[in-house]
Amino acid sequence: MYEGQTRKIRCEDTWRAVRRAWEAGETGASLAQRYDVGLANLWRRRASEAWKRRPPAEPDPEPAEGWNRYAQRKQTEFEYRREETRLLAVKLAEAMRGEPLAQVPVWHLGFVLEWRAENLPPDQAARDRDWAVRHGWTEAFWSETGWLHPLSYLDEVTLQANREDWREDAGLPPGTAEGWPC
Predict the structure, then answer these.
(1) Per-residue pLDDT tens over the stretch 92-102
(2) Which class for 138: exposed (0-12), middle (13-18), buried (19 or more C-beta within 10 A)?
(3) C-alpha span between 133 and 113 (Å, rounded)
């Protein structure tokens, strides 16, 4: 009796995976081997189902200053941001140890006040309040009963009180995008 080769029947999920991989750019031979499908069957399905490869992505255009100067500029910017972050970390660490708040950047003042109120003795929180209310707009950080508002509120008060500084930092010229920050 003649024993023929057994037919391999693959489920539709397998064929969908093969199609996705082929359309993404993988070769037919590698797909046939990986999914254990016949190469002839793969080509037949590709033709009958009109599989189309995605067009290759457009390469990034070369910057006007060239790739080397671009890379140099990016490294300089990275090193500046890294140093700035480290200096900020030092100032925040000092403030969280209870040292004076004078050097804490305005955008982080609410965070430091909240942290100190939760982690340092109550007399430190009272001294912080006495120090902060001298700045006028920071009085809004505390409720009428003397409790420090939540951080999200402190951030909003800081942003609104220093709106023009934020706009300048963001590079927004006067008279443009007047609704920001909102």
Answers:
(1) 999 999 999 98
(2) buried
(3) 12
Question: Which one, of 160, 116, 168, lies nearest residue 138 by Cα?
Answer: 160
Angle among Cα 21, 27, 28 to the nearest 5 degrees reads 90
- What values do phi and psi take at 163, rounded to 5? -55, -45
Q: What is the pLDDT of residues 136-156, one digit of tens each?
A: 889 999 998 889 999 999 999
Cα gap 155→157, rounded to integer Å: 6
All residues at 6 or more sequence positions from 72 whose CB lies less than 8 Å from its CB, including other chains? none
39-48 and 12-23 helices cross at what angle (nearest 10)?
Answer: 80
